[in-house]
Design goal:
Blueprint lengths: L1 E3 L2 E3 L12 E6 L13 E4 L5 E7 L2 E7 L5 E7 L7 E3 L5 E5 L12 E6 L5 E7 L11 E6 L5 E5 L4 E5 L5 E6 L3 E7 L2 E6 L5 E5 L4 E6 L6 E6 L5 E5 L3 E4 L5 E5 L8 E6 L5 E5 L3 E6 L8 E4 L4 E12 L6 E14 L6 E11 L10 E4 L4 E8 L5 E2 L2 E2 L6 E9 L4 E9 L2
Parallel strand pairs: 27-32, 28-31
Antiparallel strand pairs: 1-2, 3-26, 4-5, 5-6, 6-7, 8-9, 9-10, 10-11, 12-13, 13-14, 14-15, 16-17, 17-18, 18-19, 20-21, 21-22, 22-23, 24-25, 25-26, 27-28, 28-29, 29-30, 30-36, 31-32, 32-35, 33-34, 35-36
């Protein structure tokens, strides 16, 4: 074992087996007699409730289910909403009100509508078919970020449009054949219908440097979990990609995995899908064991259960490209809000085979400890920031300062 900046560096092992998706609950009763793209719009709120936007020959409905997919309400609406729905932090919804692709000429509504729980209109964007910063043409999927900005797949215009919470135009990103969008933390993910392009953008819709492929035709929707894994719902399967856009698994051996019209992920990383012919299903995420770091105000300690620490080659003094999982706790330096010293008796390798999908990572070159999720009690000052009411999950970046033998918080930011 070797120590760099006071920290040891070793190696981690990864599991070879990929678990299958396991159904935990289903909901099918709304599908009787519906014959056109049932349940094509899908989203989940912060409490795990599932919202389904539905258009069929028998009417237009918004269906709300609890986190076990039990029916809460079913509301008849005057909005098509057949492709897109997103739930904002306020509980308001934004839905698509537009003809379906291939079924209507460019007349009538091509717009999105912000509504309250009673479907009272609060704001609109778009009207008849068009382009530019005031019109849409066959709007499709919707997503929203933690600031309630709304991202619209504008299908025929081949672009992603970003609007603010009042549905006022901000910017756009041109993307041929765009069919799907999701937002996670500080990134926007977009995919093409034929699966040949998957991109990661920042919240200003600038490319973030990662481009990949889903590899399956007929991509209707995508959803991203807390570890950055992407799940794509297609005509023929559910495709799972890791955060670097490498395909991990393709699930196609059950009829529930095919004809996916919409897909979403809840706060527990469970995967919810709308199957065109079967209904709504909820799956356990095979990569959902994300264990957060925790801050204790009483003990003034930050416990990081899993840290990926690189191995150092004894001959070169450089990382050999391998890492191992360690655990440690840090104690807040008295009189400060942003300095933490290592409690060395807690620093130890993980030897029981346990792991996580979202470890903290330590970079030798910069002495940077990056923690993707820290649970902070509401109202506690840490890193010169104060958590907001009802929001207690942050991500933090800390830098090792040898002179002070402590980590100093450089950035701390609220995450969804």
């Amino acid at each position: 074992m070797i120590f760099v900046m006071g920290l040891p560096f070793v190696q981690v092992a990864f599991a070879d087996e990929i678990n299958q998706l396991v159904i935990s609950s289903t909901y099918t009763s709304i599908y009787s007699g519906w014959d056109k793209y049932p349940g094509s719009g899908l989203d989940v709120d912060k409490n795990g409730n599932v919202y389904v936007a539905q258009t069929g020959s028998y009417g237009n409905y918004s269906v709300k289910l609890d986190n076990s997919l039990n029916l809460i309400s079913e509301t008849s609406t005057s909005y098509y909403g057949s492709y897109g729905i997103t739930v904002l932090s306020t509980g308001h919804m934004v839905v698509v009100d537009s003809p379906q692709h291939g079924y209507n000429p460019p007349s009538g509504n091509h717009r999105i509508v912000k509504v309250d729980s009673n479907f009272t209109v609060l704001a609109t964007f778009g009207s008849s078919a068009g382009s530019g910063n005031t019109y849409l043409y066959n709007p499709d999927r919707l997503a929203s970020d933690r600031h309630d900005n709304v991202y619209v797949v504008d299908g025929t215009n081949n672009r992603l449009v970003k609007l603010n919470s009042e549905l006022v135009y901000i910017t756009e990103y041109q993307f041929d054949n765009i069919s799907a969008v999701d937002v996670k933390d500080n990134y926007v993910y977009v995919a093409s219908y034929n699966g040949d392009v998957l991109k990661k953008l920042d919240l200003d819709l600038n490319e973030a440097g990662i481009i990949g492929q889903i590899g399956s035709f007929g991509v209707h929707d995508i959803a991203v979990d807390s570890a950055g894994n992407i799940f794509a719902g297609t005509n023929s399967n559910i495709t799972w990609l890791d955060s670097d856009f490498n395909i991990v698994a393709v699930f196609d051996d059950d009829s529930w995995f095919r004809n996916i019209m919409a897909i979403a992920i809840d706060q527990d990383n469970a995967i919810i899908v709308s199957n065109r012919y079967k209904g709504i299903a909820k799956f356990d995420n095979p990569f959902s064991d994300c264990k957060h770091a925790t801050y204790s105000h009483k003990k003034r300690t930050l416990t990081v259960p899993f840290i990926e620490i690189p191995i150092i080659d004894f001959l070169t003094g450089q990382s050999n490209g391998k890492v191992e999982l360690w655990t440690s706790s840090l104690r807040q330096v008295s009189g400060t809000t942003n300095r933490f010293g290592i409690i060395f008796k807690t620093l130890a390798p993980i030897t029981d085979g346990s792991s996580t999908s979202c470890p903290a990572t330590y970079a030798i070159e910069t002495g940077t400890l990056s923690i993707p999720y820290v649970d902070i009690p509401t109202g506690i000052d840490i890193g010169n920031k104060k958590s907001e009411t009802n929001v207690d999950v942050f991500k933090a970046t800390m830098t090792w300062v040898p002179m002070g033998r402590s980590f100093v918080i450089q950035e701390i930011e609220q995450v969804e």
